Amino acid sequence: MNAVLRYGLQVVLYGAFAATLGYFSTSPAFEPLPAGHALIRLSLNHAGQRKVACRTRTAEELAKLAPNMRAAEDCPRERAPVLVKVELNGRTVADISATPAGLSRDGASVAYRRIPVQAGTYRIRVALADDAAGTFDRVREEEMRLEPGRVLVIDFEPGKGGIVLR
Amino acid sequence: MLRLLQRLLQRLFLLAERAANAIFGEKLNPLYHLGALSYWLFWVVVVSGLYLYAFFDTSVTGAYPSVERLTHDQWWAGGIMRSLHRYASDGMVLTMALHLLRHFAFDRHRGFRWFSWVSGVLLLWLVYASGINGYMLPWDQLAQFTVVATAEWFDAIPVFNGLLIRNFLTEDSVNDRFFSLLSFLHIGLPLGVMALLWIHTHRVPQAKTTPPVALMVGLGASMLALSLAKPALSQGPANMAVTAAAIEFDWFYLPTYALLYQWSPAGLWALTGGLTLLAVLAPWLPPKFGRREVRAFHILANPDNRILRVKEDESILDACLREGLPMAFDCRNGGCGDCKCSVLHGEVELGAYQESALSDAERAAGRVLACVTKPVSDIEIEYVPTARAAVRPVAVHEAVVTSMDLLAPDVMRLRLEVDGGKRIEFYAGQYINILLDDGQKRAFSFATAPHEPGPIELQVRRIEGGRFTTHVFTAMKPGERLRFEGPVGSFFLREDGEKPIIFVAGATGFAPVKSMLEHAFHTGLKRQMVLYWGTRTLSDMYLRELAERWAAEHPNFRFVPVLSDPAPGDHWQGRTGLVHEAILADYPDLAGHRIYACGSVKMVEAAQPAFARQGLTPDDCFSDAFKLAPRIHGKEADLVRLGGRP
Question: Does residue B351 contact residue B373 with C-beta atoms inside 8 Å?
Fold first, then answer.
């Protein structure tokens, strides 16, 4: 192979190397969400109520305990799982039971869901239960328009009124 | 199945490498420098990254605009640096992946190589993590996607369980401290890459970590052109309230992220974890149960006369380089032929190589490519040591002439005391080069045995008109200082085997033979040895009494003096004629012998074919003059120039 041809082919191969880098560093484009869709991100980090309510110890019970352990109330550590339901136009899109963290199930319940939905107007209903009976006593219902690409975050913040949509 | 896959990949690599050899040449074939290219690309990433870091604002509100300013306001510096940073990172993934695949294809990941293989797999992960981390920094839409996807992926691990993503739910969730953390990670991870790279290559003897300059220029120019033609750009500022419909995606670093939403985070962990586990275990797959014999052999390497232990699956080249032998090499992939050597004895497995690097005729003559050849028995090899000064320079010494004795009218014995009483280590039969003021060299064999303490003995024959030898005979006095380099030469005594040895010395060719014989007597060599020393007259046989004394003292040694033109006053009753003819007459069949011949070029050139005709095999015939016959008259000839030549 003569030198001119060799150098020419070298240029072609270096060009192919650069073209490979150039192309695959940006292409083909990736669509994280199907076209015309919005995204609901449900995230919560909330400790449910105690599964068994605290009770006052009797004098006999207290006497049996070591002096430094004589707490007036006996509070079992285990907490209730947090239940969350999300409905769009009456259709359930998430029904979660978030188990409390920890070996004794006494920590916060954490949950996360990524829910892609077709863009449009929805009546959104979010209900949350955090007691042992599973009573959905915290509810938020709202009509919202979700534009394509919009990210709606559903969170639970007791300090801000409970269920938050933003 | 695995073997089938490896054979297929081998075939593909060999075809690609053959084509690349034709285009780039064996020395510049990028496929032979994948590891070194990865190193170089890493340094490009580091240098460009340091520049970018100087202008990067580590805050939520400042990150995006700072990268935009860098990209557009100084496109000629910051913009190019950003592009080089990205493209070199992508190129590194490509070269590393090919490097890994090539080692797998050629089964160069087993045995002692497992460490480099496993550290290489971990390295790939670390580079991958560094790159993904880098994509988070510009805080554009790709950064937002990468951060959220990473959090969602990691949240599948029970310990996180959905907590990580809470840091990236809304604009308010992300704070400046997060960017400080990202920056620390983007410094820490590459530092980890650097450390792991060092560990990865540490076990590979003389691993090349710098590719040839021409390759660096070629790749650098192509990436620079790409940076100008298609600069790396941001994709609009991050906004947690929306998600981009389409993202320009780096498929070198983010392909697994594309699967994240097709499968599930847990599924992706299963895939990546499974593949990583498979890759880490690859050196031991398929498993071999039960006790397995470890195949480890030895190499007797000439001219070093050293015995090396070869690890299982280790190539001849790797074993030799590990032991510091100055063996030439370049591509290490069976493509260039630089590491060619001869297998004198034993069985080897040739491995895969390019036919252009080793012809059928060479293979038939026992030549192999040391880089791809593995011993399958104990073997003996011979190679030409490289003269690469950086690896093992020939030592230069200074010495003083302590004594001068006239052994014959034209032979002077010089004794040299090396400065500081230093003892030179050499093999019996090697020589030194006396360095003259104008850089010229004159070669003389050691006449002393390696074990002997004290001065070095040289036997210098006066050459009519010779510059150095005339000086020795006319002007040199004890106390004169000399500079010399050495030891050098591959003519030395092989101590393996059982065959009787015939030493053939012509005139001052006695000097290296004296060294070999004294070494043999010292080490207690029990093989039968005979010395045929040929000179013109009796007075030329300057140490005949010494040879006769050896014969009297050692029952396994015999001495046969041969005069070609005895003087009338010699009253010679012994053998006459040419020394090699005396051997031919005494040994009609030389098949069971080993011969060391040292004399004039004319003598050995005449003797070698005659010995071969009487059954002496090439493997049993030693003389630098024989081996270097085509080079004897060239400038680079390094044969022992007996007695010195002008």
Answer: yes
